[in-house]
Every structure is written in structure tokens, then in C-alpha cells.
Fold:
Amino acid sequence: MAKTRIAIAKSDIVRLFDKQPQKIFTPSEIQRILDENRSFWRLAKSMSYSDFVNYLVTKTKLKMQVFNFSYRPIVRYTWGNVPLYELILSLKPNSYFTHYTAVYFHDLTEQAPKTIYINVEQERKPRPKNALVQERIDAALKRPTRLSNNVAKYQGWTIRMLNGMHTGNLGVIKMSGPDGEKLQITDVERTLIDITVRPEYAGGIYEVLKAYRLAKDKVSVNRLVATLKKINYIYPYQQAVGFYLEKASVYTQSQLDLARRFDMKYNFYLMHGMKDSKYSSQWQLYYPKGFG
Structure:
């Protein structure tokens, strides 16, 4: 039986992919490779993108990776096996790992989370002109937190994609992953801030407190405070940060004093939806009874 044209070109196709510096491809990149090499490979004009991909997935090392996110599925193709975290970062340009995933990479937990958190920053938005008032803080923090439902299951993992506020990737660093791959991830200071803002993405407030304790020899409180100032949240999350630093019972008085430099004009809350709380007058903060 005569070979098809793509079967004849198979060795050339494999050679091209072997030489590519990248091992992860978007559908549009596969389409571009087909368009640029169709004539050289002498492929029939009738060969569609789907036919090309299906042949490669069946006959070569090309693998189709499907992430069925709640909002929109994302497809990537890999040439052979690639590190999991590198593959996940390829899902969105300029994304980075955050929250519990960053906590795990910085050794700030004794857990092994099965959810991977990836952050994609939103476009810069104008800051609301209305002044913050206590009644609005009370109403907002008494309601449950609005959490991202944009999740996908992948090989036993849950991937949760967050649309974070615009910070210009403040506090995002490069770190080597478990297979030596280069990853973008929040540094220790930014990680502590993020999990203070959304403890639900880090196993809850007790896991957040544990992260503050384990961060004692890794965090610069000076840099933590500076990062908070640069982010410039509307809500006074600095009061929750200071409270965690104090409750961790591992930081010096001078380090705690750095966190006290912020003005405290409002009462705030450690978490959303608390039913039974106590009040810290030092940090003007409500927190669950028995916490810490």
C-alpha cells in the first residue's frame, strides 16, 4: 500500500519538532508550523489542521493537553513530556503562581496541596472615587468571599485560575521548579500578603498563621510593608497583616512596629463571614474566637 504524503514527510516533521527550542505549543503555533512547512513537506492542500494534528498525536511524540476550565477550555500541545508547572504557566501569558502554590514552593506549609493557583492580572482599573466608610466595610466583610470558579481538573490536580488586581507583577520572581524548570511565582512577602487577603486560597486562616510562623527567617518585614504600600489596597489589609505578625509570636517588637506605621482609620476583619468574633483594639480587627 502506497504511503500517504504525510507519512513520507514524517521524519522531516519529527526532525523539525525535535529542533524547536520550545516543547509546549498553542494551537495557533501548530497551525503556523503547518502553514510555513506545508510546501516543503509536500502535503496536500486538502490536509486540514485537524488532520495534521490528529496524525501527529497518533504517530509521533506530540500530545494533546486539554484543560476544561469552567469559563473556556484551553488546549496545549506538548512534544513529549514536559514539567507540570511549566505546562500550567503556558496557559496564560505573563501568569504566575500564587497563594497556596507559592506557600508550598517557599516551604511555608507542611501540607501538600492538590490545588494549583495561577494568577492572571487584570487590566489597570481606575480607583473608586467614593471614600471608604465603615458601614460598607462591615457589609462587605460580613458576606461570604467571592471566589474564582474558573477551575480545571488535570491528572489528579485542580487548577484554579485567578484574575487578580493589577500590580504590574509586583513581587513576582523566578524560581526553579521540581524538574529545574524556570517558574514565575510570588516572593515570600507578596505571598504572605496574598494569603492574608484571600485565606480561602491557602487552606484557611490557621494555615495562613502557620505560614507567617514558618516565614520568620525568610521574610523581610521591611519589604513586606513596602509591598503593601505599593499595592495600595482600598481595604486596610495592613491591619490583618500586622495581626498575623503579632499572633505568629516569632517576630520582634521592632518588626511589629513597622506594621504599626500605617494609619488605622477603620475597624477591619480577618476573614469574611465570621459569626462569633473577638476584637483586637491594637489592630482594630475582628477575628474568630479561639484563633491563634
